[in-house]
Amino acid sequence: MTNEHEHTHGHDHDHDHDRTFQPDIEDSPFTHYQVMAEALGELLIDKGIFSADDLRRQIEHLDTRTPALGADVIARAWTDPDFKAKLMENVNEATESIGVDAGDIPIRAVENTPETHNVIVCTLCSCYPRGLLGPPPDWYKSRAYRSRTVREPRVILAEFGTKLSDDVEVRVHDSTADLRYIVLPMRPEGTDDMDAAALAKLVTRDCLIGVSLPDDPAGA
User: Fold this and answer.
1) Domains identified in the chain, total number
2) pLDDT tens per residue, range 8-48
3) Is there a domain that residue 57 lies in?
4) Residue 74, domain CATH
5) Residue 78 contacts by C-beta under 8 Å, 6 or more apart in sequence?
6) First and final CA of the chain: distance in angstroms?
7) Is residue 21 part of a domain?
8) Would you please indicate which residues are annotated as catalytic (active-site) residues?
9) How far is 211 from 149, CA to CA, in rounded Å?
10) Which of 11, 21, 38, 41 lies at a 20 to 30 A Cα distance from 185?
11) Is residue 142 part of a domain?
């Protein structure tokens, strides 16, 4: 489900977002969905669907994923119109076609334009496209980010250093257990002569979530 708000949150920033958004996460009680996930895992292990070691190995595999995978995918979309069309239609199938396993949970790409800026949140917990971006940052999981992004997305974006003009519509997309999102940022100006490998270095985790823009090629 997409939560679209007509009003209007990787790489390191000068300000400490983890301190701003994260204090309520550590040592907090499990959420309903965390409890359900634990119970489901135990049930599937008990029924012999997979072993505890299988589950551990899969978690370890997911933890090895990094935003570099997502950056490569975006750079490919910037340089290959056919691939971009596939990505906008079906992220999982498009990434599989270039040898990247994005996982079984559907992922939808939302494209930034001069008129529209997209930002991703999970208001219930921390649903996130781990197959392409790796584990979510702590601030993404914090209650402050999850609640404020829906209410005041332009304020959150400004706190990340992303200030948009009033004529740019900001759309907030709410990830769920059944559907995840990834932002396709606009290709930076002045990159016509850059190949996909160089372009990928401009793509940060935060711009794939939508809280920031790609790095400036002049400063890369």
Assistant:
1) 1
2) 333 344 444 443 454 444 456 766 767 877 888 788 888 88
3) no
4) 3.90.330.10
5) 84, 187, 191, 196, 199
6) 36
7) yes
8) 122, 125-127
9) 10
10) 21
11) yes
